[in-house]
């Protein structure tokens, strides 16, 4: 059975959603959660068990005298996805199992703009990582690639990429990468990929059903999750908030911070050894953080008005202390918040330490089986 082609019906997806959100549940609990009869839950769980998508928790103790109510959980053995992402000067590859567990993550220096060279490096890395983690023979669900830039087609496979990836512009990236990698490929905006990672792995799905992830990467973008689905928009470009900043002025992004540091005399070209390279330039970083916080505050305010999310997450390959400082400097007092909000919006910093877009890319083929 080809996992990428598996299409669950609505009830099966509801069962999977509960198990992903809340972890292991007994059939009795699932019936109560979903308002279904025990007979229906038994039938649905039997189908999902037969597909290998869920499993009975090994070694589960009886929860009451008599016949034990064995909990069910998402099976990590159902398969795995591969994710790849380019940051400035870095190539990242991640492997994620079907339950959302990160199997492995690797980053290495890389600055070749040719997408074919990128595909070759990804292929080599994923094979080496599969061997190292004893995944040969396991079901590879597909490869997701996070791409910075707006969509040029409704399908999102052609994108207007950032300047450093100009060689990728306008190309059918899905077709190109599938030809060179040899597996099904998903192409998605890097902010949307980061949003998937925050939703599944970062715990957002346990806290709220609607959220906004702001990614400070090559530029600034937003991934929007509404009721568990990525909001893509009519032209697959929802969340392209970078267009709200004048092109003649700086915008809050990783590349902007690197540029600001270079202008101050710091010899920095990428995120490699970032903490060591910026020693002595901490005041420059602090000034940038304060300016970026002032630029991001209005974006969050507009997001509250338009989307009413349960949470905003700031994600970036930049070090966590910089993102923590940025959130602290956001001026909530300057926001115009409606009567429906009794407290300032929840704004958190990603716990995925810059790997969100790569992990989210690996989740794309897994997510595809969940949304139909």
TrEMBL record:
Record-given protein name: Putative NBD/HSP70 family sugar kinase
Molecular function per GO: kinase activity
Organism: Sphingomonas aerolata
Keyword Repeat: no
Entries under Pfam families matching the protein: ROK (PF00480)
Family the entry assigns: Belongs to the ROK (NagC/XylR) family.
Transmembrane portions of the chain: none
Keywords (A to Z) from UniProt: Kinase, Transferase
PANTHER family registered for this protein in UniProt: BIFUNCTIONAL UDP-N-ACETYLGLUCOSAMINE 2-EPIMERASE_N-ACETYLMANNOSAMINE KINASE, ROK (REPRESSOR, ORF, KINASE) FAMILY
């Amino acid at each position: 059975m080809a996992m990428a082609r598996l299409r669950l019906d609505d009830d099966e997806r509801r069962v999977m959603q509960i198990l992903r959100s809340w972890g292991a549940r007994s059939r009795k609990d699932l019936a109560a959660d979903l308002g279904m009869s025990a007979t229906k839950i038994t039938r649905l769980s039997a189908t999902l068990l037969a597909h290998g998508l869920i499993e009975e928790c090994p070694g589960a103790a009886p929860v009451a005298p008599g016949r034990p109510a064995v909990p069910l959980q998402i099976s990590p053995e159902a398969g795995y996805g591969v994710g790849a992402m380019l940051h400035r000067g870095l190539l990242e590859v991640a492997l994620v199992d079907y339950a959302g567990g990160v199997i492995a993550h690797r980053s290495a220096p890389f600055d070749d703009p040719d997408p074919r060279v990128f595909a070759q490096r990804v292929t080599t890395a994923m094979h080496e990582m599969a061997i190292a983690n004893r995944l040969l023979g396991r079901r590879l669900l597909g490869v997701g690639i996070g791409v910075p830039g707006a969509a040029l087609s409704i399908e999102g496979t052609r994108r207007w990429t950032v300047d450093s990836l100009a060689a990728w512009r306008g190309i059918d990236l899905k077709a190109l990468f599938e030809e060179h990698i040899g597996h099904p490929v998903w192409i998605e905006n890097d902010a949307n990929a980061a949003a998937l990672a925050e939703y599944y792995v970062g715990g957002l799905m346990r806290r709220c059903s609607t959220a906004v992830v702001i990614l400070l990467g090559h530029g600034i973008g937003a991934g929007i999750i509404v009721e568990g689905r990525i909001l893509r928009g009519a032209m697959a470009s929802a969340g392209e908030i970078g267009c709200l900043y004048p092109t003649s002025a700086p915008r809050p992004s990783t590349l902007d911070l690197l540029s600001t540091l270079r202008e101050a005399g710091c010899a920095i070209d990428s995120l490699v050894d970032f903490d060591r390279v910026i020693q002595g330039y901490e005041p420059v970083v602090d000034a940038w953080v304060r300016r970026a916080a002032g630029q991001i505050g209005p974006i969050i305010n507009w997001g509250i008005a338009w989307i009413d999310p349960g949470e905003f997450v700031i994600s970036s390959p930049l070090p966590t202390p910089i993102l923590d400082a940025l959130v602290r400097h956001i001026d909530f007092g300057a926001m115009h918040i409606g009567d429906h909000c009794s407290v300032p919006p929840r704004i958190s910093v990603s716990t995925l330490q810059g790997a969100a877009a790569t992990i989210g890319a690996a989740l794309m083929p897994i997510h595809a089986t969940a949304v139909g």
